[in-house]
C-alpha cells in the first residue's frame, strides 16, 4: 500500500450521514436511559455509599447508550454487556495492583488487555474499556474496593441496566431486546 492509499482510507466513504430515527425511537431510548441510570443512582444512594455513588461509573452511561439507543447492536447484547464489564473490571483491578507505580503504563495496559480479552471471549462491549480504565485512574475510594469493584459496580450495575432494558425495550412493537442471549 502506498502512502497515498493509506491516507485516502482516512477520507471515509460516501455513504452519507446515519439515518434519522423516529420520535418514538428517541422517546424509548430516553425513557430507558432515564430509568436505568436513575435506578443505579437511587440504589447506590440507599444500599451502598451515601457519599460516593459507588454503583454509578461513567462506563455505565456509555452502556446505557448501547442498551437503550442501539438495542440491536451486537455490542449491546447481554453476553457483551455483562461479560465485557466483568472481564474489564478484573483486568483493571489486576493491572492497578501490579502497575500502579507506573500510572501511564497501567492505563494503557488495562484498556489494551481488556479489549484483547473481550475479543478472545466474544464479549466486546466498548464501555468495558472505560470500566478497566476507571479501575486504574479512579479515586482512592475506587482503589480501596479492590476486587469488590468487579462485583459493585461492574457486575451489579450492568445487571440492573439489563433488567430495565428487558422491561422497557420490549414494550413498543418496533423494538425487541435482546437479539441473542449467548
Quick recap:
The protein is mainly alpha-helical and 182 residues long. The chain contains nine helices and no strands.
List the helices and strands and how they pair.
Blueprint: H1 3-8, H2 23-47, H3 58-69, H4 78-99, H5 103-121, H6 127-137, H7 140-145, H8 148-151, H9 156-169
Describe the structure.
The protein is mainly alpha-helical. The chain has one domain (23-169). Helices cover 65% and strands 0% of the residues. It is built from nine helices and no strands. The protein has helices at 3-8, 23-47, 58-69, 78-99, 103-121, 127-137, 140-145, 148-151, 156-169. Helix 3 packs antiparallel against helix 6 (127-137), helix 3 (58-69) packs parallel to helix 9 (156-169) and helix 4 (78-99) runs antiparallel to helix 5 (103-121). The chain is flat, with a radius of gyration of 18 Å. The model has no long low-confidence stretch (mean pLDDT 95).
Feature tags:
single chain, 9 helices
Low-confidence blocks of residues: none
Q: Please give the largest β-sheet.
A: none
Compute the separation of the termini in Å. 39 Å
**Averaging pLDDT over every residue, what do you get?**
95
Q: Count of DSSP E strands?
A: 0
Total count of helical runs of at least 4 residues: 9
Using the alpha-carbon principal axes, give the shape: flat
The helical percent reads: 55-70%
What structural class is derived from the secondary structure elements? mainly alpha
Which range does the strand content fall in?
A: under 5%
In angstroms, what is the radius of gyration?
Answer: 18 Å
- SSE topology string: HHHHHHHHH
Number of domains: 1
